[in-house]
Write a structure and sequence with these properties.
The chain has 190 residues and is mainly alpha-helical. It is built from 7 helices and 2 strands; from the N terminus they run H-H-H-H-H-E-H-H-E. It has 2 domains: 42 residues, no CATH class; 131 residues, no CATH class.
Length: 190
Amino acid sequence: MHCTMDELLALRSGDGSVWARQHIESCEACRAELDAVYQRVAGLKALPALRPPRDRWSSVRAVIVADRAHRRRRWTGLALAAAAGLAGILVIRPIMGDKVYAEELAQAKQQSAQLESTLRNYDSDSRVVSGRSAALCAQLEEQIAQLDGQLTQSAIAAQDRALLDLWRQRVDLMQQLVAVRVTRAAYVGL
């Protein structure tokens, strides 16, 4: 019968049993294993100590703030592009449809503008969102950007109902984005 690893570790620390001490003197295999334990410990002690960098928070925060500022600028650009597209629609192709259509279109555009205003006034710097919510926000923002591109490209040639449907889709996406950003975000308590 040979010594267990626990007995070998106890021998190394000087707390081994009498049987283990006598056995280690007579058993070549256990003595070789005890020598291997000493070598492993010495090898582990020789490893360099890994210490984290002092304080990386300032550089991490700077990257996060720059990313948020970039997103704000992009949203502002998209809002200006949508406004320019709307102005182009109103100047080049006046709405010839009936009053009900014009009211529905104006209502959809007004809802879209209100939701954009809500997002601009929302202070996302003091909020923390989960990775899932951040991915969902990015996906919704991408869909809104694509829809804005369609609205800008189809401003002249769009049929009345198709244009109204695009604006309604934009309002639905904006409502989803507001819901994700406002209701799923939580304050950080430091």
